[in-house]
């Protein structure tokens, strides 16, 4: 009970996430999402997201405090996502965090969104083995990271050179006439299809890097569907969904395990919204078992953007005796890992 009570604020995309933790004990993880407002545009509209964060901030903090059964004045430290993400959206969270930090007289920790995605798994599976490899796949990022220690700097091994994995799911779903965000719909449709029905390209699969590329795959699916339609042939959506999905998760898991092998690491963590994908989980488990690697995937509510991940990393920084951020800390949309 002597561990500090940390409140985390996440506003890098469309989720206003407020998390409250004590050490690695989760007390609240409250989320207000503006996704419904974006759905009709087929993608997140930055200006709409910023405004929604502004409106949701105070009520979401109040709701999280009520869930945790604590008072604002009980909070010992504030952590906030400083980047990367949408500039205007980040700014709302960072400004709120500074105000609460100043008003309460408690330290402020500006944290990296990707490092927070890694840290959150500890709420579910306990301390992270170090080092570990983390594969972060969402609508905004696709990265392979080497994590020496949560309080040490995470090293980026590679990332997407074009679309993020979730973005590819969303764009292909659109081609197939499925709603936005399309990842869960493709996952569901794919269950009824065959992953080997169409041989779609696996970008950069054996190029010797830990980078990804999904835009060629997305285009290949669109061209394949167009060609079928032009020749009057029908499209079996589940087969196309399953074959596309197989191409994505084949590359993701293959590169993640290559990274484990190269760095002699025996623990793989998968996070981000795409970690909810059932085929990704199954293939990752299969390949990890074969390679003698332990797999950790947090439950879906901790995989997608949330405030608990920010609070968890903040809590680790406090515990490691890391100096807090200054009140001048900027919101940095392209903050490097
Ligand atoms: O982490 P997240 O909630 O937000 C960020 O983008 O940061 O991730 C959302 C992304 C969307 O692209 C969505 O389509 C994808 O995660 N996603 C999935 C699944 N569930 C969510 N992709 C594939 N299969 C799923 N089951
Ligand atoms: Zn994220």
From TrEMBL:
Binding site for substrate: 136-140, 170, 183, 187, 277
Top-level taxon in the UniProt lineage: Bacteria
Residues annotated to bind Fe cation: 113, 117, 305
Reactions accelerated catalytically: L-threonylcarbamoyladenylate + adenosine(37) in tRNA = N(6)-L-threonylcarbamoyladenosine(37) in tRNA + AMP + H(+)
Tagged with keyword Nucleus: no
Main location: cytoplasm
Required cofactor(s): Fe(2+)
Domain Gcp-like span(s) in chain numbering: 26-311
EC number: 2.3.1.234
Subcellular location: Cytoplasm
Free-text cofactor note: Binds 1 Fe(2+) ion per subunit.
Keywords associated with the record: Acyltransferase, Cytoplasm, Iron, Metal-binding, Transferase, tRNA processing
Annotated GO MF terms: tRNA N(6)-L-threonylcarbamoyladenine synthase activity
Annotated function: Required for the formation of a threonylcarbamoyl group on adenosine at position 37 (t(6)A37) in tRNAs that read codons beginning with adenine. Is involved in the transfer of the threonylcarbamoyl moiety of threonylcarbamoyl-AMP (TC-AMP) to the N6 group of A37, together with TsaE and TsaB. TsaD likely plays a direct catalytic role in this reaction.
Family: Belongs to the KAE1 / TsaD family.
UniProt-listed NCBIfam families: gcp_kae1 (TIGR00329), T6A_TsaD_YgjD (TIGR03723)
Listed name of the protein: tRNA N6-adenosine threonylcarbamoyltransferase
Organism: Nonomuraea mangrovi
Recorded name of the encoding gene: tsaD
